[in-house]
Design a protein that fits this description.
The protein is mainly α. The chain has helices at about 10-25, 30-45, 55-75, 85-95, 95-115, 120-130, 145-150, 160-170, 180-185, 190-195, 200-235, 250-260, 270-280, 290-315, 315-330, and strands at about 25, 140. It is about 65% helix and about 0% strand. Strands 1-2 form a two-stranded antiparallel ribbon. The two termini are about 30 Å apart.
Length: about 350
């Protein structure tokens, strides 16, 4: 059974996909099976570097809060009561906090870059153009003709038992906020909807569901690898206050760090000690004039807006940086990043 915190076995997953299709569709011969697998594998290839930016950010936010608490308690045990401002500065010079902030800041842009040239309909069309099904009129959901006799246009969505379909499927649930699961996508109501509104043939809907499922499986596994790497780095360095040399071999994490000009705080131990003492020597009881604070906030907002404009202009440059870094991990395979 699929679990969100476990990697998906690709071979078993395709078997689950194929077994379920054979129970729900007719005309699934060896030729159709081969093409289902080929399209599924295309999805695996396309999404091999995809990351769920929101999920990773949420997890990193949790780690940052934990880091903040640990830094405070570390000093509390030394009879040092840090102010909020001092705690903020400690997080700034701390190597592990800096690493987590880089991931948090860069992952959205990274996600945008690796999916920049992806359009689902175009990818599916390019795949299907090389596949010919001479008997495609026979390839359809079981009960298709009877359904057409009793339903008009888009009727049946409200009465069809989608829950039973999902329960009978032994593979992973690939549904999301704006997408349906594999069992739902190949169900009669969805296939009929695609045929009537999208001009999709029935076989197109089946192959599209295979492609979408492959995209989900590969991105899920890559996402989990990224989370494991971040967690491992956190565990290794969480007791190092505050100077650490942080390294990772995960291609996406490396791309996030290297492709965006958010460098990690890298300084010698002597340099760190100087920074650390400066923070400790701050007066914890000072007050800030509200007008000066508002001016500072306005300046920060203006700088952020300017950065956004610059990044919008430099999307192509960022894309090239990300692709170059990911390509380094594939030289041995002879695969070209798209």
């Amino acid at each position: 059974m699929y679990k969100a915190n476990q990697k998906i076995d690709i071979e078993k997953e395709f078997k689950n996909l194929l077994d379920f299709t054979k129970k729900r569709w007719q005309g699934i011969d060896e030729y159709v099976e081969q093409n289902m697998k080929s399209v599924f594998e295309s999805g695996l290839e396309i999404s091999r570097y995809w990351i769920n930016a929101h999920e990773l950010q949420t997890h990193v936010d949790f780690l940052l809060e934990d880091r903040k608490k640990n830094i405070y308690l570390y000093h509390k045990n030394k009879k040092i009561d840090l102010s909020e401002d001092q705690l903020y500065e400690m997080m700034h010079i701390d190597s592990l906090s800096s690493f987590l902030n880089v991931i948090n800041s860069g992952v959205v842009n990274y996600d945008k870059m690796v999916k920049k040239n992806f359009q689902f309909e175009r990818e599916l069309k390019n795949i299907l153009i090389n596949i010919s099904f001479s008997h495609q009129s026979c390839i359809k959901p079981i009960g298709w003709d009877n359904w057409l006799d009793n339903h008009v246009d888009f009727e049946g969505f409200d009465t069809y038992d989608f829950k039973k379909e999902k329960d009978d499927f032994n593979g992973c649930d690939s549904s999301g906020l704006l997408s349906f699961s594999f069992p739902e996508k190949i169900s009669i109501p969805h296939v009929l909807y695609n045929e009537n509104s999208q001009n999709f043939k029935k076989i197109d809907s089946l192959m599209g569901a295979c492609l979408s499922h492959g995209l989900f499986v590969s991105s899920h596994n890559h996402q989990l690898d990224a989370l494991i790497v971040v967690n491992k780095i956190y565990e290794i360095h969480k007791n190092n206050f505050f100077y650490s040399e942080i390294q990772t071999q995960h291609p996406s994490i490396n791309a996030i760090i290297a492709a965006y000009d958010y460098p990690l705080i890298i300084q010698s131990k002597d340099e760190f000690e100087k920074s650390y003492q400066l923070v400790l020597n701050q007066n914890q009881a000072y007050h800030i004039d509200k007008n000066l604070l508002l001016q500072a906030q306005e300046q920060i907002i203006e700088e952020i807006l300017n950065e956004i404009k610059i990044k919008e202009k430099n999307d192509d440059v960022l894309y090239e940086k990300v692709m170059n870094i990911l390509s380094l991990h594939e030289k041995k395979k002879g695969i070209k990043c798209k």
